[in-house]
Amino acid sequence: MLNKVTDSAIEAMSNINDGATILIGGFGLAGQPAQLIDALIARNAKNLTIVSNNAGNGETGLALLLKSGCVQKIICSFPRQHDSHIFDGLYRAGKIELEVVPQGTLAARMQAGGSGLGAIYTPTAFGTLLAEGKETRVIDGKNYVLEYPIKADFSLIKAFKGDRWGNLTYRKAARNFGPIMAAASNHTIAQVSEVVELGALDPEHIVTPGIFVHEVICIQGEVS
C-alpha distances in angstroms, 132 versus 15, 43, 63? Predict the structure, then answer.
């Protein structure tokens, strides 16, 4: 009987080793899998590369992961916000590497990784510092920059409901990067508010099919 429900977040982190590349969902705090991040901190794997929309807020979740010293590099769109003081301090001290990727390009690169594409051309960032050293091309009279797919070892995402096959639905803004991150990683771990019986999810409402999900963790009382 196929059952992807894992008893604990700590157990789900057991396969994450030093040097892994991990996609972490969320737009700021919306849709951030905080309990999975806490379990990753407890795992204490080192030299991680993290791909996320931003570089953490305050002293919790992704920011706390950076503070733990587990992260060697972060790839994100918004590294600095009014409460991103942990990242700011680490970066100024030379303790973390940063790759800034425009948000649309970040999403497109992960989509390319999940779709098996070799590379994509985007007009975003052409003529700016972010395009330095990259291949460019004129297509139909417009300037484009060549960008390569992002493919990761693991993804940590937050959904609303899931079943034991790993099918997922999302709630409102929590449906941001989760679906494309699930497709772009070798092993997806999803935090959900409720695990329902097979058939309880309307097939028309399933956003992430179970084929892209490897483990489901139920965090009761935590609404996405």
Answer: 36, 37, 29
Whether residue 224 is predicted with pLDDT greater than 60 in this model: the reply is no
Phi-psi group of 31: left, alpha or beta (phi > 0 → left; psi -120 to 50 → alpha; rest → beta): left
Q: What percent of the chain has pLDDT over 70?
A: 98
Per-residue pLDDT tens over the stretch 22-40: 999 998 888 999 999 999 9
Say how far apart CA 203 and CA 217 lie, in whole Å: 21
Q: Whole-structure pTM over 0.90, yes or no?
A: yes
- Using the 8-state DSSP alphabet, how is residue 96 labeled? S
| Rounded-to-integer distance, Cα 159 and Cα 221, Å | 13
Report the DSSP pairing between strands 142-147 and 120-122.
antiparallel
Which alpha helices (H) appear in the chain, and where do they start and end? 9-12, 34-43, 61-67, 85-92, 103-115, 178-183
Spacing of C-alpha 169 from chain mean position = 17
Q: Per-residue pLDDT tens for 67-76?
A: 999 999 999 9
DSSP H or E stretch at residue 161: strand 161-163
**Contact criterion met (CB below 8 Å) for 3 and 16:** no
Mean pLDDT in residue range 80-101: 93
Cβ(169)–Cβ(159) below 8 Å: yes
